[in-house]
Design goal:
The protein is of the alpha+beta class. Helices cover 24% and strands 29% of the residues. The protein has a 7-stranded mixed beta sheet with strand order 5-4-1-6-8-7-9. Strand 22 and strand 23 form a beta hairpin. It is globular, with a radius of gyration of 29 Å. It starts with a strand and ends with a strand. The mean pLDDT is 87.
C-alpha cells in the first residue's frame, strides 16, 4: 500500500468516516488478510518512497488512518514515482491512496494540472493485460480522494483480489453508495463453454466427427485460452473433414444438438463492454508442423549430453555432442519468434454465420462461436497441411469514452480543472484499443 500523506489529504481522510462508514478502515481490513508492506511518499529526492512499519510509527494501521499524519511535512507528493514503482512490481497487487495532485519539489512552479503525468505507466500496466480500478470518494467542494487498485492479470477476475474483496465487503455493509467506481482493462470479455449434455470430451465437437475419429484426446478449455485435440489416426480425420466440407453429412447430425454444419462450437464469448464494444471477429488457420518440429528439436538439443573421447595417444577430450545438430556449437540450441511462426493457410475454415454478438438482457453482448469449413474448401491445401491451429481473433473494437464517468477523475484546481488522472487513463485506453487480438485457439495434432 502506498500513501500520499500531503496536507491536502488531511480533511479528506478525516471525512472518510461518514456516520457508520469508514472506507479507509474497510480498505485496511481487506489488505490485512495477507501480509502487506506500507509506504508513504515524501519530498526526499534520495528516498521518495519511504517504507513505514510498526517499529517506526507504532501500529501502522492506526498511523495511516490518523488525519494528523497527513501534514505539511509531506507536501511534495511524487505520485509519478509511486506509480512507476507499482508498475515495475507488475506481479503484485498494489493500492495507492492519494488525492491525485502531483507536486514535485524539484520541478519549478506549479505542475500543469492538465498534464497526463501517468499516461506512460498506465499504458504499460494496462497493455500487459492487467487491471486498474479507481474507488473515488467525492466531497462537497468537488475534491476527490482516490483508492487506486493495481491488479495483475492473473488476479484480474479472481474473487479474492483486493478490489473484488473491497467491493463485496462494502456492498455487504451497504457502503457501496458512498463512492464511485471505475474499472479499466483491455480484456472486456470472458470465454466460457456451454455444455450440450454429452461427456466433457465430446461436448462442443460435431457428433459425427466424434463417431468417426473416436480415438483422440482433448485438453484445455476457456480457462487456458485453448483446446488441444490430439488425433491418433490423422488419415481418418482428414478424410472426414474433406467429406464434411463437401456436404456429405448434412443430414447425419443429432437434431437436438443443432449442429448443422458446425465442426467446433458452444464457445461463448461475452463482451462485458466496460470500455470496448467488440465490432468484428475473425478466424485464421496456421500450419504449425514446422514450429512443432523445431520446438521438439530445441528440447532434445537442450537435453543432449557432452561426449568424452579418448584419442590414439590415450588423451581424453570432451566435446559438445548434439546428435540433432551434428555436434555443433551449443549456442545453436535456440527457439525464437521466427521458429514459432506457422504458415498461414487460407480457404479452409471460417466462423459460422451464427457467430455474431447479440445483446442480452443483462446489458452484455454474447456470441456463440462456431467453426465450419469454408464453402470453397481447398482440398489440396487441406491435404498439404500438417498439424494446425485455428485462431479466433477480436479483429476490431469500438471505444466508448462515455461508458465510464471520467468526471469522477477530475476536480477544481486554482481556477481551472485538474485533468491529469482522467487524461492519463483516457489516452491510455484509446491507445490500447485491441485490434487483431487472439483470444482462443484450437490446436489439432497427430500421432507421429
Amino acid at each position: 500500500m502506498y500513501f500520499d500523506m500531503s496536507s491536502g489529504l488531511h480533511q479528506k481522510v478525516s471525512q472518510t468516516r461518514r456516520g457508520n462508514t469508514d472506507l479507509l478502515t474497510d480498505l485496511i481490513n481487506i489488505v490485512s488478510r495477507s501480509p502487506a508492506t506500507y509506504y508513504r511518499l515524501n519530498a526526499k529526492l534520495s528516498n521518495p518512497l519511504e517504507r513505514i512499519d510498526n517499529r517506526q510509527v507504532g501500529d501502522v494501521k492506526v498511523f495511516v488512518r490518523n488525519p494528523a499524519n497527513y501534514n505539511n511535512a509531506n507536501n511534495y507528493a511524487p505520485l509519478d514515482t509511486a506509480v512507476a514503482e507499482i508498475v515495475r512490481k507488475h506481479d503484485r497487487q498494489s493500492i495507492f491512496v492519494t488525492d491525485g495532485e502531483l507536486a514535485r519539489q524539484n520541478i519549478p512552479g506549479i505542475v500543469d494540472p492538465s498534464m497526463a503525468w501517468a499516461l506512460q505507466p498506465f499504458t504499460q500496466w494496462l497493455g500487459e493485460g492487467n487491471r486498474l480500478d479507481f474507488v473515488v470518494l467525492s466531497y462537497p467542494n468537488q475534491e476527490r480522494l482516490f483508492f487506486i487498485f493495481f491488479t495483475p492479470e492473473k488476479l484480474a477476475n479472481a474473487p479474492n483480489s483486493a478490489i473484488e474483496a473491497f467491493l463485496e465487503a462494502t456492498a455487504d455493509l451497504k457502503r457501496n453508495d458512498s463512492y464511485g467506481h471505475l474499472k479499466f482493462t483491455i480484456n472486456d470479455y470472458r470465454l466460457s463453454k456451454e455444455e450440450d449434455g454429452r461427456p466433457r470430451n465430446e461436448s462442443g465437437i460435431n457428433s459425427t466427427l466424434v463417431d468417426w475419429v473416436m480415438d483422440y484426446e482433448r485438453r484445455g478449455g476457456p480457462e487456458q485460452g485453448f483446446e488441444h485435440i490430439h488425433v491418433y489416426d490423422p488419415k481418418v480425420f482428414y478424410e472426414y473433414i474433406e467429406d464434411f466440407a463437401s456436404g456429405k453429412f448434412n443430414g447425419d447430425f443429432r437434431p437436438e444438438l443443432d449442429e448443422k454444419n458446425k465442426l467446433f462450437y458452444q464457445l461463448l464469448l461475452t463482451n462485458e463492454f466496460i470500455n470496448y464494444q467488440i465490432a468484428n471477429l475473425a478466424v485464421e488457420v496456421q500450419d504449425i508442423s514446422r514450429p512443432l518440429q523445431a520446438y521438439q528439436d530445441y528440447l532434445k538439443c537442450q537435453q543432449a549430453d557432452t561426449a568424452m573421447v579418448v584419442d590414439e595417444q590415450g588423451d581424453k577430450h570432451t566435446y559438445w555432442c548434439n546428435p540433432y545438430l551434428n555436434c555443433e556449437d551449443p549456442a545453436r540450441c535456440s527457439f525464437g519468434p521466427e521458429d514459432a511462426r506457422g504458415r498461414r493457410v487460407a480457404e479452409l475454415f471460417e466462423l459460422h454465420e451464427e457467430s455474431v454478438m447479440e445483446q442480452g438482457g443483462d446489458g452484455f453482448s454474447t456470441a456463440r462461436i462456431a467453426i465450419r469449413p469454408v464453402k470453397n474448401f481447398n482440398v489440396d491445401a487441406w491435404w498439404e497441411t500438417g498439424m494446425f491451429r485455428i485462431d479466433l481473433f477480436i479483429e476490431d473494437v469500438r471505444y466508448d469514452e462515455k461508458k465510464q464517468d471520467f468526471e469522477l477523475l477530475k476536480w477544481p484546481y486554482k481556477n481551472t480543472i485538474n485533468t491529469g488522472l482522467s487524461e492519463s487513463v483516457r489516452l491510455a485506453m484509446r491507445e490500447l484499443k485491441p485490434q487483431h487480438k487472439r483470444i482462443y485457439s484450437y490446436y489439432i495434432t497427430y500421432q507421429q
